[in-house]
UniProtKB/TrEMBL annotation:
NCBIfam families, per database record: PRK11898.1 (NF008865)
Database matches in PROSITE patterns: ACT (PS51671), PREPHENATE_DEHYDR_2 (PS00858), PREPHENATE_DEHYDR_3 (PS51171)
Record-annotated ACT domain positions: 205-282
Enzyme Commission code: 4.2.1.51
UniProt keywords, alphabetically: Amino-acid biosynthesis, Aromatic amino acid biosynthesis, Lyase, Phenylalanine biosynthesis
Keyword Amino-acid biosynthesis: yes
GO MF entry, a single one: prephenate dehydratase activity
Residues annotated as domain Prephenate dehydratase: 2-190
Protein name in UniProt: Prephenate dehydratase
PANTHER family: PREPHENATE DEHYDRATASE P PROTEIN, PREPHENATE DEHYDRATASE-RELATED
InterPro entries on file: ACT-like_dom_sf (IPR045865), ACT_dom (IPR002912), Chor_mutase/pphenate_deHydtase (IPR008242), Preph_deHydtase (IPR001086), Preph_deHydtase_CS (IPR018528)
The keyword Amino-acid biosynthesis belongs to this UniProt entry's keyword annotation: yes
Amino acid sequence: MKRIALLPAGSVSDEAAKQFFGDKEVEWEHHRLIADVFQATERGECHYSVIPIENTIEGSVSLHMDWIVHEVDLPMQAEWVYPSVQNLIGRSSEMEGREGGIDYSRISKVISHPVAMAQCHQFLRTYMPHAEKEHTGSTAEAVRYVKEHPGEGIVAIGTGRAAANNGLDVLSKGITDHDNNYTRFMLVGPEPYTVRQSDRTKTSILITLPEDYPGALHQVLSAFAWRRINLSRIESRPTKKKLGNYYFYIEIEMSLDTVLLPAALQEIEAIGCQIRILGCYPSFSYQQLL
């Protein structure tokens, strides 16, 4: 039986992981902090960690990407997407107005994970511009905090499952700024994931350019372009070694088992670039998991 590290029960990570693994026999190990999720697998206590890495509205989850790059050596083994439906959660008995409905003026503080909070910016600005905003390690942790602090005018942004788990109410449902809000999750760990099969395979790499080499990035992209290799994502992040020194995180719509991709990487290395392979893995759409 595989043991899976992930964020707390009732979080979007929890819902997404259970959707991905389906009825497979797995054992869940929930952690409050993403650092603990990573380290549980790095220490060998779990087979895999479930990591949210990108969101439709907020883009890359930089903190989690930095952990993958700088803190642990856990290969990417699979990715999938899951809809992020965020709700305003609290006690309706505390927030009801005189004429029924929610009296938002009674809310003094809104707490949630920073990414979930950012997904609901327009709703918060419209209905609760007066409320204090506070970040937590996960949406599930925020909902649990509301449960433990009744009568203080505090609400959380989180999932309906988290509300039900903690005996709280969904005050407003689906409060994200856009309806097509999806989060992309990565399964990281030392073992290849072979349970599900997908017709789409991706490869993630890090490229660090040589210093004082004008046009190096252009040559890197050209190595992919003339071979008609599609890049689905490219992002620059600081190496944390020197000011102005960046690496490029690139996702490639191709397997390392092909002829073209290894040849492109060899061409890139020939101009002095450093390449680190983060993983070659199956990619699943939400529809594939239904």
